């Protein structure tokens, strides 16, 4: 019974880790609810009235979610600096509450400073956020100069409770966060292997659903890998350890994606395109039974189950797990492959390579392992991993990019835009209501947070309005049920706060829904609840969103096309850098810092993916552009996968016995790099008319017969070069770059 209980707990833990990598959303929700609860308890014990309770709860929430630094010392400094900012802000709001014009001018100036402060990093962002939100708090509770001492006391208690919860009750150190992210990576890798099992057994009518699960699994695994990379420096003891973990995470991700591609290829009548794994909604290739003897299908199913066990039970030892590991690693040796077709044997080789990546990841995360039960194949894999670990060197960091100046700086431009939009929102909001006009200003300000183009602001405003409309309905229902039961309302407020922060990274619409519902309950507590107030909330929200969009469209506008083109050029430049550096190293050139180049490519691609959301959103009327944007991003993800694979293989060059430098690669891959540069030049300048070149296959340029197999690592290099070359040529067509026909 105890073992069964532990197994259930382990499965629940893995599910939670997979759905919430690093438990970041859970921690944010618990911290905020804990801070608000503790603040309410302290203030209630001193006999505070409802107004101070509401002010303290809102201040505790602001003090908790505003702090974004990762190091505890930096968090403490920002929290300490935030208290005087909050006290000054609430004092100005109270003193100027009767001076309408002066108060409005100060509010606009405060909004400008809050957005402009983002240029000073996380601390500037946090202090600006605290200043703005606390000024809004003073308007919400109707602060006056005579009540300032009580408000000061409530804010001080709120910041103290936030600090206590953050540093003592719900602590989150960089090392602990990174450990949880690693657990999430293994959990998501295990789920991806489960998706491969479903793809193996899927019938003709089920393959589309199975393939969609594989796509989602790959995307989530990559998302977790990027989250780990962003926290390696703070969460590991030294830079060499960080680079080792980064390398092993990349190996596991590449090996898992290759396994899925080869499994799909084995089930289809022809070679599966890598794009199929990256383009949402792409039809699955025609599949049939796995070719070869029926026994090979049963063996592959058994081995995928064994691989999943190795992944999700990474901390387990014992003879049984060692036997599973030895069997899977044996597939890296030709004599251990089962009797099957070449395509199916490729899948078994990929299983072996994935098992090797899982073992390398375990060694990097947990240290040396028991080697007493190793088979000869496992021992050889360990020797390769040890040699690779010893060869990992610290490369030089690239210098920071030269910042833009003046109004071209994104923070300056956004500050000017939001100041103009807020001015419009104040004027329009006061025409709707002289008491609740600040809701329009709040919405206008919020839609500018973490946005960089007019299209992004439009989509965010639409989502906030949609969440607000449904939240008003829910607020009406809850307010009617709660009535005059104050503490019942506060308990529901805590539940809604947790839901708000837990869902914020997933859906801005859901977050807006929970915020509006919570505000309906707060109005009830302040005895200002009415149907008219909640309807006014929707009107002010719509007005604020409209003012934000107008300001973004007319004042120093950044069109979505311009924004996506700039990011697209950056992605192509990073892609060319990674490809050229990897091929150069595979050709015998100097060793470079390929891991960091690959990480920069992934970050640039992530920025582009976010920027294209206005083009791919379901409400966009331009269906053709939507399909083109999704296709281009999927092609770029395919290119990035092959470039990462080339970089990972190139870093094996000094230590792997089956890889040798081949000077011919540089010339053969030169066409691909030139094509990437040509496309980037055309995107940056429409007057560029140079075409993308095509020609013989990479393998034929090296003197081969054009057939690329999976077995040897050198063949795998050619496979990735071939696929990358094809994807780059495919990228030229939707971007309007001419393609030069190959010469006879």
Quick take:
This is FUSC family protein. By secondary structure, the protein is an all-alpha fold.
How would you describe the overall organization of this protein?
The protein is mainly alpha-helical and 744 residues long. It is 73% helix and 0% strand. It is built from 27 helices and no strands. The longest helix has 29 residues. It is globular.
Biggest sheet character: none
Shape: globular
Separation, N- and C-terminal Cα atoms: 73 Å
Binned, the helix content reads over 70%
Mean pLDDT: 82
What Rg, in angstroms, do the CA atoms define?
A: 29 Å
**Unreliably modeled segments:** 393-403, 705-713
Strand content: under 5%
How is the quaternary structure best described?
Answer: single chain
Order of helices and strands: HHHHHHHHHHHHHHHHHHHHHHHHHHH
Got a strand count? 0
Class per helix and strand makeup: mainly alpha
Q: How many H/I helical runs?
A: 27
Write the SSE topology.
Layout: H1 2-19, H2 24-45, H3 50-65, H4 72-95, H5 100-116, H6 121-140, H7 148-169, H8 174-201, H9 207-235, H10 239-267, H11 294-312, H12 319-329, H13 342-366, H14 376-391, H15 410-432, H16 438-446, H17 454-482, H18 486-503, H19 508-525, H20 531-554, H21 560-586, H22 594-611, H23 613-616, H24 623-651, H25 664-684, H26 698-701, H27 713-732
Task: Jot down its keywords.
Memb_transporter_dom; globular; single chain; transmembrane helix; mainly alpha
């Amino acid at each position: 019974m105890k073992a069964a209980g532990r197994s259930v707990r382990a499965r629940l833990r893995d599910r939670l880790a997979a759905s919430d990598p690093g438990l970041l959303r859970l921690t944010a929700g618990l911290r905020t609810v804990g801070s608000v609860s503790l603040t309410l308890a302290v203030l209630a014990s001193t006999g505070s009235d409802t107004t101070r309770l509401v002010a303290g709860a809102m201040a505790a929430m602001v003090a908790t979610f505003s702090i974004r630094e990762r190091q505890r010392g930096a968090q403490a400094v920002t929290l300490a600096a935030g208290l005087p900012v909050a006290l000054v802000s609430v004092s100005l709001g109270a003193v100027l509450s009767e001076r309408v014009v002066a108060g409005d001018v100060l509010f606009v100036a405060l909004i400008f400073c809050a957005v402009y402060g983002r240029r000073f990093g996380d601390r500037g962002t946090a202090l600006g956020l605290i200043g703005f939100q606390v000024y809004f708090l003073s308007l919400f509770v109707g602060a006056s100069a005579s009540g300032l001492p009580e408000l000061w006391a409530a804010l001080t208690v709120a910041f103290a409770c936030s600090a206590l919860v953050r540093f003592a009750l719900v602590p989150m150190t960089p090392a602990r966060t990174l450990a949880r992210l690693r657990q999430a990576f293994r959990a998501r890798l295990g789920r991806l292997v489960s998706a491969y099992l479903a793809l193996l057994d899927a019938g003709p009518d089920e393959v589309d659903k199975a393939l969609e699960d594989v796509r989602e699994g790959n995307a989530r695994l990559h998302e977790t890998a990027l989250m780990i990379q962003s926290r390696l420096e703070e969460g590991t003891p030294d830079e060499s350890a960080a680079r080792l973990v980064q390398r092993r995470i990349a190996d596991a991700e590449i090996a898992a994606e290759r396994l899925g591609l080869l499994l799909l290829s084995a089930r289809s009548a022809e070679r599966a395109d890598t794009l199929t794994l990256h383009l949402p909604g792409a039809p699955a290739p025609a599949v049939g039974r796995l070719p070869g003897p029926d026994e090979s299908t049963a063996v592959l199913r058994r081995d995928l189950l064994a691989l999943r066990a190795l992944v999700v039970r990474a901390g387990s030892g014992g003879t049984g797990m060692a036997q599973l590991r030895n069997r899977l690693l044996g597939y890296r040796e030709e004599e251990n492959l089962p009797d099957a077709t070449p395509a199916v044997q490729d899948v078994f080789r990929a299983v072996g390579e994935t098992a090797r990546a899982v073992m390398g990841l375990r060694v990097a995360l947990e240290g040396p392992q028991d080697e007493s039960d190793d088979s000869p194949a496992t021992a050889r894999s360990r020797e390769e991993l040890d040699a690779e670990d010893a060869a990992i060197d610290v490369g030089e960091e690239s210098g920071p990019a030269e910042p833009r100046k003046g109004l071209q700086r994104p923070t300056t431009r956004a500050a000017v835009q939001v100041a103009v939009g807020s001015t419009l929102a104040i004027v329009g909001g006061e025409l709707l209501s002289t008491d609740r006009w600040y809701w329009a200003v709040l919405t206008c300000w919020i839609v500018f947070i973490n946005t960089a183009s007019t299209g992004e602001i439009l989509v965010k405003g639409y989502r906030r309005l949609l969440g607000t409309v449904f939240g008003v309905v829910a607020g009406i229902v809850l307010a009617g049920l709660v009535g005059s039961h104050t503490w019942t309302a506060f308990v529901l407020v805590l539940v809604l706060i947790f839901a708000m922060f837990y869902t914020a990274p997933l859906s801005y619409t859901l977050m807006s829904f929970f915020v509006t519902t919570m505000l309906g309950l707060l109005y009830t507590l302040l005895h200002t609840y009415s149907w008219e107030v909640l309807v006014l909330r929707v009107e002010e929200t719509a007005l604020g969103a409209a003012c934000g969009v107008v300001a973004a469209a007319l004042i120093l506008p950044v069109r979505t096309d311009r924004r996506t083109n700039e990011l697209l050029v950056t992605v192509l430049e990073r892609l060319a850098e990674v490809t050229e550096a990897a091929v150069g190293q595979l050709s015998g050139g100097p060793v470079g810092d390929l891991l960091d180049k690959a990480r920069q490519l992934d970050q640039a691609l992530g920025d582009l993916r976010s920027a294209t959301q206005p083009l791919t959103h379901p409400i966009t009327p331009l269906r053709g552009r939507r399909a083109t944007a999704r296709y281009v991003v999927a092609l770029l993800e395919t290119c990035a996968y092959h470039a990462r694979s080339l970089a990972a293989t190139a870093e094996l060059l000094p230590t792997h016995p089956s890889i040798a430098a081949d000077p011919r690669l540089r010339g053969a891959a030169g066409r691909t790099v030139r094509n990437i540069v040509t496309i980037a030049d055309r995107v940056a300048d429409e007057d560029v008319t140079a075409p993308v070149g095509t020609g013989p296959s990479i393998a034929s340029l090296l003197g081969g017969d054009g057939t690329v197999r999976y077995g040897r690592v050198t063949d795998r290099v050619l496979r990735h070069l071939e696929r990358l070359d094809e994807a780059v040529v495919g990228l030229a067509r939707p971007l309007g770059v001419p393609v030069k026909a190959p010469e006879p």
